Backbone:
């Protein structure tokens, strides 16, 4: 019995001892009472730093041009055109000035032709009155009135104008006669006509001129004319007969004048002797009707003669002045006619401009977008047909919050990327910063426009990301931003001394991003700054470091820096 009790006690003792050992092994070791804080540190390093602002937004063309039906503000009424030919489509790349669409304007051409005829008639009428040519109308001085000129070379006949005399419109001022050739009307009886109707040569005998002059048949009237025969029949009635007429011209030796009579001989070409039996001498003589070339000069207005340039029988050349007509009425008349001509020319100019606008050209180089043009469609002046944008010159619209907006400056360089173009970075610059922000969900945001040097792949509306560079510095002293704090407006850092003690140092800051701050003064390269300590840790947290209490040896903490600090 005793052995059983003893065994049981031994077993119970072992169980209690084992449980107590297990319980002790599960408890954490007792904490050592700390003699000071544990620090997390970093060394002051030398490196590069850049500061910037990240944002995003859509891309829009910075330069574009509308494709429009040409518009002439001087045209009267709204003209319509018909699209005759479409040469491009949406998405095509075009150059400035390239023809995109050709139009038709059926009514313009007809109206232009009518105006052209009216203008030519008006110019010729005024030029004739002024004694000039249509192309010299604008050289005329209205104050000098109208100068009547010789229409042909010749001599002046029937001229009686004197200075101060009034001449009525339509009155004959003179006749200009070219007396180097005379004109004679020969009368042939039916029998003579039957023989000589095809003869072209004529021989003429004048009483005032010795010998025979040669002439040329220039016109033959094939239709007979009835005339009195010079007698009566047995009943006492006048007798009539048929006759034919030929017009003959000859060179005037100087003595031939109108009303002179001549006997006419007709012959074939090649007959040189007037006495030849091949010459048919007509029965009756013929009269000189006048000269081959003569023109009357009429007054084109009612006015007074202010100057006389010729006399009766003066020899003149075509265009030589005969008389000058002047006065306020004449001046007003010339001005009024010139005004009418100017109005016609103005209408023609406008129509010609409209006719020249039958081609729609690209206003700028770029890519065709939103193009709405089909053959046969009727369009009006100024109608919008599409748009051309330049993908090489784009604008990015974005917003920046009130914290970062002070970092954004006019002209700041920008790096632009797009998810649609992986691996490609575009250059840009800030061209506009809104002076006033807009509240969005309690955050003030400022509009920023960025000019982007694009590529042909870009399209309006694409989303892009931008990194706006706010500054950079190379080979400067850097500390983690966690090491910097501020007291009374002065930036400071805490430096860990070699003996484990710390001191607070005032510093001058330069650039700062979300990782590092530039130190312009107050620290040296290699100084060890405090980025955190056990004082900053909650009671339930522990600093995982081998750093010992002040005065003990060990690692310097987790303060190693990046030799090349980047921005956001």
Residues:
């Amino acid at each position: 019995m005793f052995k059983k009790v003893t065994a049981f006690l031994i077993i119970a003792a072992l169980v209690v001892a084992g449980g107590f050992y297990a319980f002790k092994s599960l408890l954490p070791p007792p904490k050592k009472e700390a003699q000071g804080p544990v620090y997390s540190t970093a060394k002051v390093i030398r490196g590069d730093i850049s500061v910037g602002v990240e944002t995003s937004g859509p891309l829009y063309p910075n330069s574009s041009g509308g494709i429009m039906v040409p518009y002439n503000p001087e045209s009267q009424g709204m003209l319509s055109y018909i699209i005759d030919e479409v040469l491009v489509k949406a998405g095509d790349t075009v150059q400035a000035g390239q023809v995109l669409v050709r139009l038709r304007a059926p009514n313009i051409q007809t109206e232009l032709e009518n105006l052209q005829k009216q203008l030519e008639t008006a110019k010729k009428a005024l030029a004739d009155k002024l004694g000039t040519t249509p192309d010299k109308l604008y050289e005329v001085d209205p104050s000098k009135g109208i100068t009547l000129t010789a229409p042909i070379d010749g001599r002046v006949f029937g001229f009686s104008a004197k200075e101060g005399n009034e001449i009525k419109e339509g009155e004959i001022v003179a006749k200009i006669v070219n007396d180097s050739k005379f004109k004679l009307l020969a009368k042939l009886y039916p029998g003579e006509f039957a023989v000589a109707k095809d003869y072209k040569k004529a021989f003429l005998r004048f009483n005032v001129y010795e010998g025979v002059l040669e002439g040329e048949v220039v016109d033959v009237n094939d239709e007979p004319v009835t005339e009195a025969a010079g007698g009566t029949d047995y009943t006492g009635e006048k007798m009539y007969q048929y006759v034919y007429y030929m017009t003959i011209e000859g060179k005037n030796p100087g003595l031939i004048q109108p009303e002179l009579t001549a006997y006419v001989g007709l012959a074939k070409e090649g007959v040189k002797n007037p006495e030849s039996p091949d010459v048919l001498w007509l029965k009756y003589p013929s009269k000189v009707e006048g000269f081959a070339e003569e023109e009357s000069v009429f007054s084109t207005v009612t006015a007074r003669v202010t100057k006389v340039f010729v006399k009766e029988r003066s020899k003149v050349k075509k265009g030589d002045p005969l008389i000058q007509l002047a006065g306020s009425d004449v001046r007003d008349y010339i001005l009024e006619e010139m005004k009418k001509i100017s109005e016609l020319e103005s209408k023609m100019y406008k129509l010609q401009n409209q006719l020249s606008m039958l081609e729609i050209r690209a206003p700028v180089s770029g890519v065709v977008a939103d193009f709405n043009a089909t053959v046969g469609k009727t369009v009006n002046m100024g109608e919008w047909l599409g748009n051309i944008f330049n993908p090489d010159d784009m604008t990015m619209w974005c917003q920046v919050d009130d914290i970062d907006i002070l970092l954004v400056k006019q002209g700041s360089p920008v790096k632009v990327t797009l998810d649609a173009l992986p691996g490609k970075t575009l250059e840009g610059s800030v061209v506009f910063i809104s002076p006033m922000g807009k509240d969005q969900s309690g955050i003030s945001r400022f509009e920023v426009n960025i000019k982007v040097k694009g590529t042909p792949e870009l399209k309006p509306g694409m989303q892009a990301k931008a990194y706006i560079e706010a500054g950079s510095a190379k080979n400067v002293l850097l500390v983690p931003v966690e090491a910097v704090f501020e007291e009374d407006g002065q930036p400071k850092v805490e430096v860990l001394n070699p003996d484990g003690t710390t001191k607070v140092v005032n510093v001058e800051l330069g650039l700062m991003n979300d990782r590092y701050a530039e130190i312009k003064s107050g620290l040296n390269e290699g100084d060890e700054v405090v980025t955190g300590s056990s004082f900053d840790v909650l009671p339930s947290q522990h600093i995982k470091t081998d750093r010992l209490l002040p005065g003990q040896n060990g690692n310097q903490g987790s303060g190693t820096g990046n030799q090349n600090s980047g921005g956001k």
Observations:
- Residues 538-568 have pLDDT under 50 and may be disordered.
- The helical segments are 2-26, 106-130, 190-196, 328-356.
- Residues 177-294 form a domain with the Elongation Factor Tu (Ef-tu); domain 3 fold (CATH 2.40.30).
- The radius of gyration is 58 Å.
